[in-house]
Amino acid sequence: MKNKNLISVVGPTGIGKTRLAIDLAKHFSTEIVSCDSRQFFKEMIIGTASPSAEELAEATHHFIGNLSVQEYYSIGQYEEDALKKLNELFEKYDTVILVGGSMMYEKAVIEGLNDLPEANDENQNKLQEILDDEGIEKLQEILKELDSEYFEVVDFHNHRRLLRAIDVIWQTDKKYSELIAISQDSREFNVIRIGIEAPREELYDRINRRVDLMMEKGLLDEAKGLEKFKHLTALNTVGYSELFKYFNEEWDLEFAVSEIKKNSRRYAKRQLTWYRKADDIHYLQLGYSEKDFDGLIEYINLQTQK
User: Fold this and answer.
1) Contact, 40 vs 63, CB < 8 A?
2) Segment Interaction with substrate tRNA: which positions (predicted)?
3) Which of 12, 20, 9, 61 is nearest to 39 (CA)?
4) At 238, is the secondary structure helix, strand, or coil?
5) Percent of the chain with pLDDT over 70
6) Does the annotation flag 172 for ligand binding?
7) How confident is the model over 160-176, as pLDDT tens digits?
8) What are the tens digits of pLDDT across the range 247-265?
């Protein structure tokens, strides 16, 4: 199936990946597979900037709003489901689009997950006690000390990611960042990675304005409706955890919104750190012209002929 091509659109949150993915899908008359793990959940539309109804109508998307926050869904399950879907799509199309900023989920699709050990119950129980007694900040501190490189890119608000990384480090006596860096190189399709980049100040301004737009669209009501699920992993994420503190009267609304903006910018910074280490991403500038898009298509066509 090496004559089949997966175009993976990557980049930090708020940079415009959805629009580019749709433009590419329309050009190649194909469909889109999402690897944005936050957009899997149908109850989290506004806070995850899921594609609008109009955008979904422009091109067929997969793995958008396909789960409930009450469902447990692992990266391993996603890898299996995404590859199955790609095999189906490659029966109909020579080219398929992958899009999303969840770095490990993209890696699972284009390279495969690494052969990491299963969770160790003793380690997990010990880490859970630390989380319960000393809070997530203590887990962040432990991981930063054990593997500062992975700490730079991990979603450190997600305690499950922290628990997993520390557990693996304790079991293997190796850095998690080193273990996941090993490519499995087992895919039967070509991968062409496309990124969008912008000056950091412009990106951060876009993020701030997008949070304001989310609030205008009803993020507060969306989060209020999900408050009863705030203990679930899916809701332990930027845009929701801050508003739960507002509902709990720990923060006022203005401060909660400012924290959403700050944490979104921090997440974008971690994404930029991750992508900067890759040497196989072809970049477009934010605000690309029709001429730039034509140049991108030319580049993609050249890659498919190799």
Assistant:
1) yes
2) 36-39
3) 61
4) coil
5) 98
6) no
7) 889 999 999 999 999 98
8) 999 999 999 999 999 999 9
CA distances from 5 to 28, 107, 192 (A): 11, 16, 7
Do 109 and 35 touch, CB atoms closer than 8 A? yes
| Cβ-Cβ contacts under 8 Å for 13 (sequence gap 6 or more) | 49, 101, 207, 264, 267, 268, 271
The verdict on whether residue 13 carries a ligand-binding annotation is yes
27 band by pLDDT with thresholds 50, 70 and 90: very high
Residue 95 annotated as binding site: no
- Cβ density class 228-239: b for 16+ within 10 Å, e for less: ebbeeebbbbbb
- Write down all domains in the chain, each with its CATH number in brackets: 5-114+182-304 (3.40.50.300), 121-180 (1.10.20)
Partners of 99 in the beta sheet? Answer: 9, 34
Q: Sheet harboring 281-285: ordered strands across?
A: 61-62, 32-34, 95-99, 5-10, 190-197, 281-285
Q: In angstroms, rounded to a whole number, what is the distance separating the alpha carbons of residues 3 and 1?
A: 5
- Tokens read off for 176: 């998690």
Q: Count Cβ atoms within 10 A of the Cβ of residue 44 and give its class: 0-12 exposed, 13-18 middle, 19 or more buried.
A: buried
Tokens of 74: 């692992």
Q: Is 15 annotated as a binding residue?
A: yes
User: What letter represents residue 189's amino acid?
Assistant: F
* CA–centroid distance for 107 within its chain: 10
Q: Is 17 annotated as a binding residue?
A: yes
CA distance readout (Å), 228 to 42, 93, 175, 259: 16, 42, 36, 21
Say whether 218 sits in a helix, a strand or coil: coil
254 by Cβ neighbours in 10 Å (0-12 / 13-18 / 19+) ranks as exposed
**Neighbouring residues of 27: CB distance < 8 A, sequence distance ≥ 6:** 297
18 annotated to a ligand binding site: yes
The annotation status of 117 as a binding-site residue, yes or no, is no
Q: How far apart are CA 267 and CA 259, in angstroms?
A: 12
